[in-house]
Amino acid sequence: QVQLVESGGGLVQAGGSLRLSCAYSGRTFGTYTMGWSRQAPGKERELVAEISGNSVGTYYADSVKGRFIISRDNAKNMVYLQMDSLKTEDTAVYYCRGTAGGKDYWGKGTLVTVSS
């Protein structure tokens, strides 16, 4: 059974940085496309960044390009989201997602609050 557990959220001032981590438990982590999505209050969940199993392919939402970096360590079953130059509009619950075989798995989320 796949489980995803996020950590690293918190309160940070605008312009600051945070690094989110997601621990994966289950089999064949390297075959999963991993991603980070976020959901702000009153808004729909949106995909922020995604990384392929071998880390060759990445995707970033326009709103975070140049500020966020997604990475993974297949040996440790971990995926990360480095967030720099944070803005107040980045405030949201951030969810880790794993996708394989057409099925999505989600973590419970970690809250990121960016103050002005």
Most strands sheet: 7 strands, mixed
The shape, in one word, is globular
Contiguous uncertain segments of 5+ residues: none
* Number of strand segments: 11
Number of helices: 0
Helix percent band: under 10%
- Beta-strand share of residues: over 45%
What is the straight-line distance between the termini?
Answer: 40 Å
Mean pLDDT: 96
Radius of gyration, whole Å: 13 Å
The helix/strand class is: mainly beta
Order of helices and strands: EEEEEEEEEEE
Please give the structural blueprint.
Blueprint lengths: L2 E5 L2 E4 L4 E8 L7 E7 L6 E6 L6 E3 L7 E6 L4 E6 L8 E9 L2 E4 L3 E6 L1
Parallel strand pairs: 2-11
Antiparallel strand pairs: 1-3, 3-8, 4-5, 4-9, 5-6, 7-8, 9-10, 9-11
Would you write up a description of this structure?
It is globular and about 40 Å long. It starts with a strand and ends with a strand. It has strands at residues 3-7, 10-13, 18-25, 33-39, 46-51, 58-60, 68-73, 78-83, 92-100, 103-106, 110-115. The protein contains no helices and 11 strands. Helices cover 0% and strands 55% of the residues. The strands form 2 sheets. Strands 2, 4, 5, 6, 9, 10 and 11 form a 7-stranded mixed β-sheet that branches. Strands 1-3-8-7 form a 4-stranded antiparallel β-sheet, with no helix packed on it. Strand 5 and strand 6 (58-60) form a beta hairpin.
